[in-house]
Amino acid sequence: MGTSVQVTPLCGVYNENPLSYLVSVDGFNFLIDCGWNDLFDTSLLEALSRVASTIDAVLLSHPDTLHLGALPYAMKQLGLSAPVYATEPVHRLGLLTMYDQFLSRKQVSDFDLFTLDDIDNAFQNVIRLTYSQNYHLPGKGEGIVIAPHVAGHMLGGSIWRITKDGEDVIYAVDYNHRKERHLNGTVLQSFVRPAVLITDAYHALYTNQTARQQRDKEFLDTISKHLEVGGNVLLPVDTAGRVLELLLILEQHWSQRGFSFPIYFLTYVSSSTIDYVKSFLEWMSDSISKSFETSRDNAFLLRHVTLLINKTDLDNAPPGPKVVLASMGSLEAGFARDIFVEWANDPRNLVLFTETGQFGTLARMLQSAPPPKFVKVTMSKRVPLAGEELIAYEEEQNRLKREEALRASLVKEEETKASHGSDDNSSEPMVIDTKTTRDVVGSHGPAYKDILIDGFVPPSSSVAPMFPFFDNACEWDEFGEVINPDDYVIKDEDMDRGAMHTGGDVDGRLDEATASLMLDTRPSKVISNELIVTVSCSLVKMDYEGRSDGRSIKSMIAHVSPLKLVLVHAIAEATEHLKQHCLNNICPHVYAPQIEETVDVTSDLCAYKVQLSEKLMSNVIFKKLGDSEVAWVDSEVGKTESDMRSLQPMAGAASPHKPVLVGDLKIADFKQFLSSKGVQVEFAGGGALRCGEYVTLRKVGPTGQKGGASGPQQILIEGPLCEDYYKIRDYLYSQFYLL
Amino acid sequence: MASSSISLKRREQPTTRDGDQLIVTPLGAGSEVGRSCVYMSFRGKNILFDCGIHPAYSGMAALPYFDEIDPSTIDVLLITHFHIDHAASLPYFLEKTTFNGRVFMTHATKAIYKLLLTDYVKVSKVSVEDMLFDEQDINKSMDKIEVIDFHQTVEVNGIKFWCYTAGHVLGAAMFMVDIAGVRILYTGDYSREEDRHLRAAELPQFSPDICIIESTSGVQLHQSRHIREKRFTDVIHSTVAQGGRVLIPAFALGRAQELLLILDEYWANHPDLNNIPIYYASPLAKKCMAVYQTYILSMNDRIRNQFANSNPFVFKHISPLNSIDDFSDVGPCVVMATPGGLQSGLSRQLFDSWCSDKKNACIIPGYMVEGTLAKTIINEPKEVTLMNGLTAPLNMQVHYISFSAHADYAQTSTFLKELMPPNIILVHGEANEMMRLKQKLFTEFPDGNTRIMTPKNCESVEMYFNSEKLAKTIGRLAEKTPDVGDSVSGILVKKGFTYQIMAPDELHVFSQLSTATVTQRITIPFAGAFGVIKHRLEKIFESVESSTDEESGLPALIVHERVTVKQESEKHISLQWSSDPISDMVSDSIVALVLNISREVPKIVVEEEDVVKSEEENGKKVEKVIYALLVSLFGDVKLGENGKLVIRVDGNVAQLDKESGEVESEHSGLKERVRVAFERIRSAVKPIPLSASS
Questions:
Q1: pTM of the complete model
Q2: What are the residue boundaries of the Pre-mRNA 3'-end-processing endonuclease polyadenylation factor C-term domain, all occurrences included (chain B) (predicted)?
């Protein structure tokens, strides 16, 4: 009778690898999260590649690489073509994160796993939902309702609820129950008794999280200590996730203290990130939206933070101590890596990690205790070609161009027609002849940059199986293609179409520097050299990960108390620890599957629906208990006109049933109640409550985390025969409903 | 105790019909425009939509008819958008009435609500007594207002609701409310036409059972958007090209932003105009710009995509103007100024100085209230009266181009045809327009399955929804799907409007509730021989079993399979049992018995021969008790012929057969009651069967 549910991890179990799980609900395959790590290790995606084509829908939970990094690659190379569901911020910030990843990688390697076009295509058809929006899936997923809810870890971050026939499957990883500056805490605790909970054990062994205030104080003290002695502070951060919280803390502290040390936020997309974030107030904490509503004060109008999008701006900044937040947090690529290498050997400087680095990255290495004195770093740089290389390249280019021109002339007419005629359905992914591209890349790294330019104004001549060559006809100056503004003017009469025009173009805003990088067609190559970097700067790690700690995770799971629990994403010890804990205290069905091991978590819950007849209901008197009302029913099954089972009152006398006491007695509350009634009451040893002179009352039997989870309560009341005894017994009865 | 939950005071059948009645009462905006406020009640849940004031009245007279309802019973108040006639009585309602429910509006609405009402309080020139609320009330109300995002589902006391984009103005929402499966859509003001920054009103994916819809535009049809935008820009272009000035009197919020977008875009497309300044002169609009610049997500894709390049609400060709002193009137220009009606203020000052030059133009962009100057000049009089009392010739060109963002007839009828709600309630429309709309809609829905209602203020519309209550039986009880005639017994748990039936020991599994068992242990002083107790107990109880306590090896008795009696020491015995009404009773009688043993010397007399006699006596006693109880319940009870009891209540007669329990009566209600009462009395006077401990 129950809905069949299977969970198959594709990546990210028994280790800290990126997250990617296949959840199949009555044969409808959800891919929940589609993560990759900062090293872009394709071996991590093997499991995904085997099932990618069978996926029916993709749900994304957080806008960082670990949760959605593999989406462009999977869409392009692995045959993933399902619709993607995410919240607006996850979509937007995820897109920017991927841009930043790509541009950082591109700068230091011949990165060819995916292109900016692939990123755009992957994110183009994301269906955006708001929190608590119950979205009814169409088509094959008929009857399934999905809804994102606040996760509290990153802006827009979601826990997903998948509901079918009243049974909930909840996917909650990386949630944070604590409220932060820019985010509300998760609402996970509002779900009670779902059929399945899929959650991570990432922090299961992590305890003694410092209180927020103390942590903030230490954080700011550490930073200002280094600034005051003239050092620089580097915070390796993610592109658009946790960094927002750090920015707010710094911004707030700077305005309170009136610091004049500059703060720089340096990623390839920093200014767009903040621009978007400014329009995401709906998704932030109550205090942020309240302050905007009352004073129109947008918390992300950063007054003390300078947004930078290339390294030169930072180099040109006035000398002196400064704080730099730069991506990537792993120090594997991006500006953070360059800056680290530059600053590492000055003992006045500080590298402050705000989260645990991904496994096997430079950041993780530096976080080990004791920190290494030296690290070997391979630094790569993109340099323009010169001399013979340049000549060789140009010859090759000319040869290619001639070939292309020949081919182009054959299809040009058709091409032009197609590109102009179908401008407004550019939603179709552009097909680039990847083989050609690869060849070019093989011999001359960046030669395919031309393609990127086209990618930015997708011509959607996608139907053509060939590379669109009309850029040959374009004129170029030092800024790139010469554009005719009139082409972009939206004429009055086709304003509606114009809207769709822009609608198709979800490239998002790229910063000028980014654009210049795109448009930079100068032939270049990547050179690498290995350095030994002396690490003399201070290395500090503080917890700004925004995840609940082990204790909270346990109490959260106990509160939710799912019927079946699936544990993912944590090292083996943590997974095992949490599994044992849950088995002992919370629920008997805990699974921690291996990669590609399918666990069937179909609920063995039996259920059927009946109609409650008016005649029966008019005789039922409900007793109110918290949110719910309860009553005992004795009824007989009948049929309604529509052949539905219905419950009718019993014809004869109902057979007697064992009375049930319903209620949750909390000894402490009861103590208060008794003293309010004038009974002398105090705690005696062993959790017993001494009421009056002689009577004692205690809870016996196993006590669970919460009364609800571990079976009925056992209460023992004893005493000699006296008036008090009966009085207290009456008070005790008054705490329950007898059914 | 099987039937303890079913009280003798059973409710009569017809009362349940009340639960199915749905009432909709407009407290304002019923056959009028202004002070929108619609009350709805169903299944004991009360909802209020909108809370506006009537702009034409002042003081208490401007409020909706709040007296009609008890504000403390309202569960949820939903505000569709920030306009005065939809939101302005909110501070009053929140701060000056007994209302203590929850209030919801969208983020953008809340942000503008405060600015708009603060401004409203400042500019409305009424005496202190007439002031409905002050700025402090507005600030306090802000704390009570909760925000809801579009499509987000919120549940309050079992009422589920969510909202759809309504077009109209920034943040405007249509609310869909779901109470026990009955869906009600309240559109507020809506527009089905996408414009430069707003999305068109969405078509809800579910058809509602009732649609409460605005009817401002009645049967009118709007001009196509492109035509009116072209007229608008053409007038402006030609006027400034000839060196004239253009005045656009407009309300600060709503349409003004749309017009600014049009102008900014037009200027961007016509570089020849770039040296001609555009001003918007409204401090309120300026303040609200931050809101428009922020809640981009509530706008249409066009704006969202433009936002990818630059914020479209950061105007390139338009500058704000604080007062006329900052304005140097040196040449052609375009000024958008408040108030929209040209009553006073900056728009009037500019009008006065520009009206006599025929090169100048004035564009009235929307519906104007009767009695304002703006309404007067639409008819192009020869002369107008200036603010200083003098008259001046009206030479400037006056154009009326309506940018109204209310649905017109075409939009309304297609919207309703798509939704096909069985009940349509028209509100927010002038009475005559509304009647015309109603007539015309009737012709659109000729099949007669659609009710169209136009209640006046305080006039209730009643509807009945025969909602079926469905329960889900889960867990052990559902292991086998029962057939007709099988019995189902368990705990019925009601949460919101969902019902679940489960076995008592699974209560903690499927709900947040838990069950408990209470074990009682009581010690009684008793110095006699334990055997005596056993003997006495056997006299009274059907089952007394001897056993020994496992730990101490002392003798113990299990009475009636419930209560364990143990000899604790020479002087004490203990009783232990698990609480439930029968066990409690058994234990009480054991206690009484034990206490009496120690008081009086036991008389051990064999009374075998009395058994028959005492049974007879018992039977008589039972009959007496039954009779007494029936009298206490029904009053007039007499012993009729052939041993039947005749019961008379309010002229109805029932005859009760004491042996079989059969009842004969013409009145079915009485018959049922007597039957049940008799059954219960019988079960009460019978001895406790052992089986009750099952």
A1: 0.78
A2: 484-688
